[in-house]
Amino acid sequence: MAQEKIVTLRVNGKEVKIIAPAHRTLLEALRHEGFVEIKCGCEKGDCGACAVLLDGNPVDSCLTLAWHAEGCEVTTIKGLGNTDNPDPLQKAFIETGGAQCGYCTPGMIISARALLNDNPNPSLADIKQGLGGNLCRCTGYTRIFEAVELAAREIRRERQET
Predict the structure, then answer these.
(1) What is the pTM of this model?
(2) What are the residue ranges in the chain where pLDDT is below 50?
(3) What domains appear along the chain, each with residue ranges and CATH number?
(4) Which member of 30, 69, 74, 117 lies 3.0 to 4.6 Å from 35 by CB, making a disulfide possible if both were Cys?
């Protein structure tokens, strides 16, 4: 039997204690705890559907062991915004039709959020590179790129107003 470890982390601002064997991925551990907004795609780091922010950096939770998140802040798509107060990216994905089936959307938005946190004025090439680890089989990417550009403009506008 694999040795289990208690892992304490913050998920979307709330402390969570996870009991996990040493081999359990962050994806498995979080979904086990009810964070089903994190999608399970390829489970080998190719699709980005499971992306979360780990201390502000995007990671594929399917490749990250749960114990590596000890003491870290984990942000899922639900930690960015909600229906009453959506993140500009969430709003832009809806407005542009960037989310079709929606399966890749949480990971796309997480990766795009990391990109915009580092670069609030990305070029199309920057956006393509920033989302390079995320696969979508529905949209052909054009509307996703438009959503990121729209959100970037909105974020810059909001910053100018404050």
Answers:
(1) 0.94
(2) none
(3) 4-79 (3.10.20.30), 81-161 (1.10.150.120)
(4) 30
